[in-house]
Design goal:
Layout (H helix, E strand, L loop, with lengths): L6 E5 L2 E4 L1 H8 L7 H4 L3 H10 L10 H10 L2 H26 L2 H14 L11 E3 L10 E4 L7 E7 L9 H13 L4 E6 L5 H9 L3 E5 L1 H11 L16 H5 L2
Helix pairs in contact: 3-5, 5-9, 7-8
Length: 245
């Protein structure tokens, strides 16, 4: 329902039915299945992405059955994992978009520290600014104990479709100039326009752009905002063990 945009995320694990969802319920369907939700383009795109497809075009049933027949158990596990990952990544992004704006800055500080930026021995290595007189900067990570080298963060919590434009990149660049900084990260829960990307590429300083999809994927990979329920170790036969004389 979430992937079909029939419910809205209003908080961590909290959802609210919207007009599209109410219209579905009004149709008195015998049940809501994936086939039912395929009428919505957002759900089609989700299914295509979860299967690793490059487009939302469906393959015919005969070729699908043949592919499934040739799949190994490892292929099945990998496919199931990718489907679950795609669903969780979307849930992460929905939760960030619905949370307090300052959470996005806190997440970025945690992610940079988890990636190895900052001084692990300094408790003040990563700082989230409160948004009051921050001069266009939402967070900073000190790369050394003295704070001589820093990475500045700009975070924009936007809904899908409200993309960051070139002026926002230029403003962030100006804020970095005031601090004599050469490295920054601009993150948004939506996406960047083409002029914004080109603007960042033309700058002499280095500004990494992270859109909502990539943000959620990084959070998933680094275990930020998610928990591990079950792990299934994949084991293989040790041929050397059985070949010993």
């Amino acid at each position: 329902m979430s992937q079909a945009k029939a419910i809205d995320t209003v908080g961590a694990g909290v959802f609210r039915i919207n007009e599209r969802g109410r219209n579905l319920l009004a149709r008195s369907l015998p049940g809501l299945t994936a086939d039912t939700l395929m009428e919505f383009p957002e759900f089609q795109a989700f299914r295509a992405k979860s299967k690793g497809a490059t487009s939302a075009s469906a393959v015919d049933s005969s070729s699908t059955a043949e592919a499934q027949t040739n799949d190994t158990p490892e292929d099945g596990m990998r496919s199931a994992y990718e489907s679950l990952k795609a669903a969780v990544v979307r849930e992460i992004l929905d939760a960030v978009q619905a949370a307090d704006p300052i959470l996005l800055s806190q997440i970025m500080v945690k992610l940079l520290l988890a990636m190895g930026y900052g001084d692990k021995d300094s408790p003040d290595s990563g700082i989230v600014l409160d948004g009051v007189n921050d001069g266009g900067v939402d967070g900073v990570v000190n790369k050394d104990r003295l704070g001589l080298s820093r990475v500045y963060i700009q975070a924009k919590r936007y809904k899908d479709g409200n993309n960051v434009g070139s002026p926002a990149i230029q403003q962030f660049s100006g804020s970095m100039d005031e601090r004599r900084a050469n490295e920054g990260v601009f993150v948004t829960t939506s996406d960047f326009s083409k002029p914004a990307i080109e603007s960042a590429q033309r700058l002499t300083k280095r500004i990494a752009l992270i859109n909502g999809q990539r943000l959620a994927e990084i959070m998933f990979e680094l275990g930020v905002g998610v928990t591990t329920e079950t792990a299934y170790p994949l084991k293989r036969l040790d041929s050397d063990f059985f070949s010993q004389g």
